[in-house]
Amino acid sequence: MFDNIINHNTIIDEYINANNLNKGNITFIINKLHNEDNVKDFIKNTFSSASKNSIVIIIDAVVYHDDAFTNTIYSFYSSNFKRIYTVNEVINITCQYADLVYYKKFNERIYIDNIPNNLIDDIPENIRKNMLICDNNVLKAVNQNFGVYIFQVI
């Protein structure tokens, strides 16, 4: 899921170049949190295997509240999908292992299929208008928020 996102590369390269970071000292987690059964254990294992002061970069979809509609849409898209986390949830889960040194949101259009047509009937108009791309009342794509989190391991 979300394998076709591309905007994160520019954001990460700009940060790495601006801060003269050694790419060999960076751990990338791309689009993984939403598929994890136990995201707290996943974060704990990831950060405990990273060396002190190293950089861990997480790129994943973001919701800004407990967005049941977004999570419902993506549950049809991927059988491995669990849920999308808010920015605050990701920061709270990682705060005992690392400091957030940078965060940037970007938006990407994700083309999808296999979403039941009647699903969009229950989605509020403001979400349909801002997030969903429909063709003849058939859901074709979603404008999804993503976040690039850059953490320094403590």
Describe this structure in words.
By secondary structure, the chain is α+β, with helices and mostly antiparallel strands. The protein has a single domain, classed as Rossmann fold (3-Layer(aba) Sandwich), CATH 3.40.50.150. The chain has helices at 8-18, 39-49, 68-77, 87-94, 125-131, and strands spanning 26-30, 55-61, 98-111, 132-135, 138-153. Strands 1, 2, 3, 4 and 5 form a five-stranded mixed beta sheet that branches. Strand 1, helix 2 and strand 2 form a beta-alpha-beta unit. The longest helix is centred in the first third of the chain and has 11 residues, at 8-18. The relative contact order is 0.23. The model has no long low-confidence stretch (mean pLDDT 84).
**How far is it from the N-terminal to the C-terminal residue, by CA?**
31 Å
Total helical elements: 5
Mean pLDDT: 84
Oligomer: single chain
Roughly how much helix do the residues carry, as a percent range?
A: 25-40%
Tally of structural domains: 1
Q: Uncertain regions: pLDDT < 50 for 5+ in a row?
A: none
**What structural category do the secondary elements indicate?**
alpha+beta
* CATH fold title: Rossmann fold
The H/E string reads: HEHEHHEHEE
* Portion in strands: 25-35%
| Number of DSSP strand runs | 5
Q: How much is the radius of gyration in Å?
A: 17 Å
> Largest sheet, described in full?
5 strands, mixed
Shape: elongated
CATH architecture: 3-Layer(aba) Sandwich
The CATH class label is: Alpha Beta
The name of the CATH superfamily reads Vaccinia Virus protein VP39
